[in-house]
């Protein structure tokens, strides 16, 4: 996985934890919308630039884990 793709989520978390925003959060609705937009953009970028083989491997692993019966 490319290093820049790995850096997207930590950069997003750092931005969300910063006290300064593009649009301050005290402005009703719009203040939270910029955060939501950045979250959607970051997730979209991660999915867009993650190699397809890696995504397929993780999907297969998740499907195998959910197919297993739960142990008592």
User: From the alpha-carbon coordinates, what is the Rg to the nearest angstrom?
Assistant: 17 Å
- How are helices and strands ordered from N to C? HHH
What average pLDDT do the residues reach? 87
Binned, the helix content reads over 70%
Provide the low-confidence segments as ranges: none
End-to-end separation in angstroms reads: 37 Å
Entry summary:
Helix content is 71%, strand content 0%.
Element layout with pairings:
Layout lengths: L2 H15 L12 H20 L2 H16 L5
Helix pairs in contact: 1-2
Tell me about this structure.
The chain is elongated, with a radius of gyration of 17 Å. The longest helix has 20 residues, at 30-49. Helices cover 71% and strands 0% of the residues. The chain is mainly α and 72 residues long. The protein contains three helices and no strands. The protein has helices at 3-17, 30-49, 52-67.
Fill in the keyword field for this structure.
72 residues; mainly alpha; 71% helix; elongated
């Amino acid at each position: 996985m490319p290093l820049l793709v790995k850096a997207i989520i930590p950069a997003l978390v750092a931005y969300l934890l910063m006290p300064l925003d593009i649009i301050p959060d005290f402005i009703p609705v719009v203040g939270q919308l910029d955060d939501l937009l950045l979250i959607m953009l970051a997730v979209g970028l991660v999915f867009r630039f993650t190699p397809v083989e890696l995504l397929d491997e993780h999907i297969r692993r998740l499907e195998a884990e959910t197919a297993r019966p739960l142990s008592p």
